[in-house]
Structures are given as structure tokens and as C-alpha cells.
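Reopening this ticket.

The earlier resolution said the output was attached, but the attachment link was broken on my side. Pasting everything inline this time so it's all in one place.
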Amino acid sequence: MLTKKLNVCLLGLLILFGCADAQTGGSGFASLPAPKAGEKVATFAGGCFWSLSEGLYELKGVNKVVAGYAGGTTKNPSYEDVCGKNTGHAESVQVYYNPAEISYAALAEAFFYAHDPTTVNRQGPDVGDDYRSVAFYRTPEEKKTLESVIAKVNATHHYSSPIVTQVVPFKVLYPAENYHQGYYRQHMDNPYISHVSVPKVLKLRKAMNSLLKPEFQHKD
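Inline output:
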């Protein structure tokens, strides 16, 4: 029991440290670029967007990832607004990718391996609907693809529990503050990054090694 309490306290401190450090970055918001010619976009939410941004960026064919807020009702929310859990938004990422190099299906599968899609409103120590798992689709074809990929991952029994990710139509993503963009690489000394985010990125690398950019692939 004592060990369990200590672990809970440690995780709480990691969250507090991560949030406090993030809030020192200023309030300027990132821009949300239009897709380039031949480029497509996909939007996902899977817990803290620091690790999800990095994990999906490491895939071949992914050109850019913008961290933001989606799935809620408040317009142009701030990080503090979303953390207050009154906006309905989830921490999300918008992925700009080349469909000639990576398919939407492969990107979706990577998303399911980049976080734990079997927990409702929770990712490890992060609790609340702002950390829920969501796959936003833009077309009926993307919806069918997501449903197919979910069935595929469930069939592999990669997770001991079934996927509970919400599959909902995309409406809008509001870009997060500039200091959240690329936060993972810029703050490797942050205890939250090293203890919570890094294991998620390594988990994705292991599951999707062949689809990673060469610099991130594990060489036997």
C-alpha cells in the first residue's frame, strides 16, 4: 500500500512539474497552415499532445504535426482553459502527411500504438476528458478505415482490453500555444517527458519500426 501511495504521489508531482514548466512559455498561439499540394491532414487525440506529436512526426511521409485542441465547444481556448476541463476539448494533433508515402490506414494504426486507446478519459497519470482518445474523420471513407483498423488491432490482442477510442467527425482544431510545438525534443530534461512521454514514443517505435523515418528505426 505504501509503495502504491508513493507511486501515485510521484506521478502527481510529474504532472505538476510538467504543467508548471509548460506554463512559463508565453501565450502566443501557433499558426495552422493549409495543406500543401498533394498533402493531406489527419487529426487525432491521444492524451498529452507532447508525446503524440513526436511519435507521429517520426513516421515516414509525415511532414509536420501541429499540437492543438479539438472536440470541444469553446472557441480559441488556451492551455489553461482546456486544463480547466470546461471546454470539452481534448489535447489533439493535426498531422500533415504525404499519402504517396504513408496511407491513412497506416497513420491511424500508428495512432493506436502511440497511446493507450483502451482507457476512458485517461492516459497513465493524466485524467480527464481533455486526455480522451479520439480519432476525427473527415470523410465516410476515413470513418470506415478507422473502424477497420480498430477491428484489426483488437484482433491482434495487442491490448488486453478492447479499444474505446471515440470515432467522430472532424469540425475544427485550434492550434495550441507556440511553446507546445516540438515541446518533447526541447524539454528532454523535464521529468514528465522522461517518465511519461518517452515510454510512449518508444512504444510506437517498437510497434511501427518499418514505417519510421530512417533516423528513428531500430537496426538489428
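Reporter confirms the inline version is readable. DSSP finds seven helices and eight strands in the chain. Helices lie at 2-22, 49-57, 79-83, 104-113, 140-156, 183-186, 191-207.
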